[in-house]
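Re: weekly structure request thread

Next one in the queue (441 aa):
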Amino acid sequence: MGSGWTDKEAAHLLRRAGFASLGHEVKASVALGRQETVKRLLDGTPLMDTENGAKLASMEELQADGKPLKADDITDQQLYWLYRMAHTSAPLTEKMALFWHGHFTTSYRKVNDVPLVVQQIELFRKLGLGSFKDLVLAVGKDPAMMLWLDVNSNRKGKPNENYAREVMELFTLGIGNYTEQDIREAARAFTGWHVEKAKGEVTYQPKQHDDGNKTVLGQMGKFDAPGIVGVLFDQKALPIFMARKLLHFFATETPSDEWVAAVAANFASMKTIGAVLGTLFISDEFYDEAVIMSLVKTPVEYVVDWMRAFSLPLTRGFAGALRKMGQELYLPPDVAGWRGGQTWLMSSWLLARYQFAESVAFKLNGTILTSPDYIPDDKTSAAAWIELWSNQIGVGQLGKTTSEVLTAYVSDTFLYANQRNMTGLRGLLHLMMVSPEAQMI
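Done, posted below.
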């Protein structure tokens, strides 16, 4: 492990393991050090002791646009999850729930039951940093997942292959590490389970289970669902597949084969996802210059970051903005989830970010931008002013071109004017929010 622990490294960790790395949080992390910061993120312990008493409001306590949130409304549930991400003292728990939501994709469009899709996210919060095997077993009996992948129609003599296919292709092994025959045989092992949607209850029906011999991935036996999961976890492809998924989400879209192999070895030997991530977050590779600010923010991260930076009140406009940006919580597009990466920067989705940023900047309570945190003294240079703002709102280090453009804006708008007008301040904020750096983590 390299010596020292810098503001830049702390901000990087907080962005990747949570959401916007705000100035005071970065300072707290630097004071704690790398290992203690990682430990607190994994434990769900606040970085600052003053936050220990903070509790999330219940959904019933919150309003959006002056109206109470409704638990049976999917849009309001989207807002409540955004609220949790923005206000939690355990950001890694919420970040992992978001990761698993994209991994074990399930859409409200088909499930059509608000409590069940919300219950699935609670499952991810509860087990998301624990044993991956336990999580896979639990997801297999999750009512929303069962409805999403038609498990009710998977019966003895008439197996439905949907779940067996996705558990291999998308959840554990990846394409190329199984055969169609493996899927057919595994589907037989998953027979017998039934979900009663009205009650959200999962039951086992022995007469509908195929208890004959199955041959899956070279192993033969009278496998049931746990037995097949055991076979999957015997495969060398599984830790490699999951290592690559974790690195793509938390580190880089282009990890080296050596890095994937190292994380896969940890995945195979360690008992929990939390332990794997803890090792990743402490490693020097995670703080390489090529890794920092290399991932495109998801729309959810983009919205939550500004909610955190400015303590934005909930509005149903957030849900509409996310829809226009291409990512609706509880509504992934298909079984493969959101494509992510550079696709988030398609012209129409990028325009939606611009419009959202404009709305935030020009509707924001003006007292925020005129507070001492944002208005330096008259002796502060334009470049220093830009650096102050970028650190304060969690954008981080700006590139040369962006810094020059924003510095010129400050010089022309404020330094030679008689007063720092609110329109100019909002314009500066808008420019910073749509800068290339503000789209990255």
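The first strand starts at residue 63 and ends at 64. The chain is about 55% helix and 5% strand.
Next request, please.
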